[in-house]
Amino acid sequence: MAAQNNPTIKKTFPVLDMACASCAANVGKTLSSLTGVIDAGVNLATAEVSITYIPTLICPDEMRKAVQSAGYDLIIDESLSDGENLESIHQQKFKQLKTKAVWASVLTLPVAATGMFFMNIPCANDMMWALSTPVVLWTGRDFFINAWKQAKHRSANMDTLVALSTGVAYLFSVFNVLLPQFWMNKGLHPHVYFEAAAVVIAFVLLGKVLEERAKESASSAIKKLMELQPKTLTVVREDGVPMQTPIEQVGAGEIILVKPGEKIALDGTVESGSSYVDESLLSGEPVAVLKQEKDKVFAGTINQKGSFRFRADKVGSDTLLAQIIKTVREAQDSKAPVQKLVDKVAGIFVPVVIATALVAFIVWNIWGGDNGFTQGLLASVTVLVIACPCALGLATPTAIMVGMGKGAEKGILIKDAESLEVLRKINAIVLDKTGTVTEGKPEVTDEYGWGVHPKWKRVFLGMERQSEHPLAEAVAAYLRDEEASSVSQFESITGKGAKALFEGETYFVGSSRLLEENNIEIAPSIREKALLWEDEAKTVILFGDSKRAIAALAVADRIKPSSEKAVAELRNLGIEVHLLTGDNETTARAIAAKAGIRRFEAGVLPGQKADYIRELQSRGKIVAMAGDGINDSAALAQADVGIAMGKGSDIAMNVAKTTLISSDLTKIPEAIRLSKSTVTTIKQNLFWAFIYNLIGIPIAAGILYPINGFLLNPMIAGAAMALSSVSVVSNSLRLKWKK
Predict the structure, then answer these.
(1) What sign does the CA torsion over 317, 319, 323, 328 have?
(2) CATH number for the domain including 597?
(3) Which of 387, 488, 633, 703 could staple 353 via S-S, CB 3.0–4.6 A?
(4) 650: in domain
(5) CA atoms lying within 13 Å on the CB side of residue 432
(6) What is the distance between the alpha carbons of residues 57 and 3, in angstroms, rounded to a whole number?
(7) 424 and 464: one domain?
(8) pLDDT digits (tens, 9 = 90+) for 60-107
(9) Using one digit for the tens of pLDDT, what is the confidence trace for 416-467?
(10) What residues does 555 pair with on adjacent strands?
(11) Which domain range does residue 729 map to?
(12) What residue ranges in 535-648 does DSSP mark as E strands?
């Protein structure tokens, strides 16, 4: 109830010292139990927790203390969270991990060789004891320290399993070296398992190194995006002198100089100069875009050979790049619906494994004969070793990290994991016409007439430059190479066109109705062209003097070059494509025919678009809606997946669950294919993680022994456990290379 009456804040903090899915579950449980915390979602793959909390009831420092008391650490210093210091902390920890893994491997090799092939040489046990001790007590000390921290809080994680298994094997072996008579008096041989303890620790450490490397590769998309923003930029002072300035000291409204080859640091508007800018890392579009005066530029894009100055419009977290990084981060931290099941399993996984190990030990002691105690001990150690909560914990988040990152690199931003799952299921898509299927701005597509007199185009341009009609801008852009004549007595005739005087002659521009009302002759050839263009849903503009029509122009909102291809791809995926527009039926029919869309609705008001989607959903359709995200906000919210089309800071990320930065419709089928690939990878990862544990644990307990006498060696179990989580992350990384 408190959440409803108090404003909440959502923040993401890095978490240190998490080892497995059980750790993530423990951190989440610890934070969720705090008064004032509404929700805490832990992502093992990114080692971050996303917390929604009420700042009047709890502060980050209290959260950190709670997490520390549970045996982990929370970084709440925001300058560290996004900066190089956090990176250096991770690098330092990774370096220590690598050092321990190398030393553990070097010391373990002779121990393993002796245990397998040279057990009968003199002092074999003493030599293995000497070499395995630093492996267990130095390279493996963190497992014991963390396990003790967990035990103090009545919880357990992967460190608990490793510490129990290797600790028991090591202490049992030490006992047998020091007091071999205890077993000899019972007629039993005092076996030692130093090699099992050492090999397990070495394999787990090597597995962690490989896992960290793979996770780093999985999160490379975010790093790439963050590297796009330079640390300093050239600010032009009021006296005109350029000065290198740290980016955090630059405010909105300042003039920035961009030199050839430099990265653009902030969002802004070009003031002077021109250049081609590579926007591929934001939009996924490979072709550089020409930027001239009044054009928008965005942080993270790369200037090519020209030089220009722009006025900073948005700085810091307001830039498009910052918004993209935030969206991708939040998406990677979000949980797919299937992850809820995994979280429940992870929460009870380690206690169940410990219980299974105890049951195996007891069963072997009762029915195992003379070697029951030793075999039971070995079986319980093997159960503890082979169980892998890491594979379960990494299965979903690593696939989502790679999938979301790949999408971001292609200019596809998917807001959360749930949308990613739903996207692959859509069987109907509703497209808004203007700005989605079409370019969203009228352009002159055809012209006819003019004759030989050069002054007519100049008069026509002079009239259009004075006109406030929406189509006048398109005509002016089309005739921009002409020199406009200065016309007088310009008069706008509402709903029909305009007239003006030039060198004593009256000229008219507008519809055929305007010319006919003024008894101006329209030649049959011009009339024929006008009718043809009208059938193609184009607006016809006629230009004439007081006696006859001189020329005709057709203006239309062109279909995007990608629209036809995108519609064909969507239909090949078995998706129904619908077109909605507020335009008349003739225009709607013409646009639909050109784009290859069979279902369309004309004269639809913004509010009616949501009703249209609701009606499709009532027929059992899973519907996506693609629109500009502002006029179509109700429809985007109603759809199962809302897709905002648009390029630039005005894209409505808050409304839609998916944003296509480049406005290219072919990105929609691409996003659907990405969704299918990612969800397939999640299912593969979970299948192997569950199967691995379901098969591995009973075999480790000795379930095959009564059937064929097979017992699993703890060393083999250690290798299998280390490789299981690495294989899950590697499978996720395959998404990177899929087209």
Answers:
(1) negative
(2) 3.40.50.1000
(3) 387
(4) yes
(5) 31
(6) 10
(7) no
(8) 889 998 888 888 888 877 554 454 566 677 778 888 889 998 999 899
(9) 777 888 899 999 999 988 778 888 778 888 888 877 677 888 888 888 888 7
(10) 444, 539
(11) 88-220+330-400+680-737
(12) 539-544, 549-559, 576-580, 599-601, 623-627, 641-645
Report in angstroms the alpha-carbon separations of 248 from 84, 225, 233, 265, 575.
15, 18, 10, 11, 47
To 10 degrees, what angle do helices 714-737 and 389-409 make? 10
State how many domains the chain has.
Answer: 5
> Residue 144 corresponds to which amino acid?
F
With beta carbons less than 8 A apart as the criterion, state whether 159 and 143 touch.
yes
Cα–Cα nearest to 434, from 306, 604, 638: 604
Is there a single domain that holds both residue 634 and residue 720? no
Q: Which residue, 609, 630, 664, sits at the end of a domain?
A: 664
Alpha-carbon distance of 155 to 159, in angstroms, equals: 11
Q: Is 432 among the catalytic positions? A: yes
| CA dist., res. 24 & res. 15, Å (int) | 9
Is residue 717 domain-shared with residue 732, that is, in the same domain?
Answer: yes
**b (16+ CB within 10 A) / e for 420-438:** bbbbbebebbbbbbbbbbb
Which phi-psi region, left, alpha or beta, contains residue 596 (left: φ > 0; alpha: ψ -120 to 50)?
left
Domain final position from 558, 579, 597: 558
Residue 196 identity: A
Residue 545 structure tokens: 């003097």
Q: What is the distance between the alpha carbons of residues 715 and 174, in angstroms, rounded to a whole number?
A: 18
Render 606-645 in DSSP notation, one character per residue: HHHHHHHHHHHHHTT--EEEEE-SSTTHHHHHHSSEEEEE
Of the candidates 297, 333, 299, the one whose C-alpha atom is nearest the C-alpha of residue 317 is: 299
> Which amino acid would we find at residue 257?
L
Report how far apart, in Å, the C-alpha atoms of 679 and of each of 97, 400, 418 are. 32, 8, 10
DSSP label at residue 434:
I
Token code pair at residue 363? 């069963």
Among residues 17, 416, 432, 557, the one annotated as catalytic is 432
Can you tell me the distance from the alpha carbon of 250 to that of 236, in angstroms, rounded to the nearest whole number?
Answer: 11
CA 385 and chain centroid, separation: 34
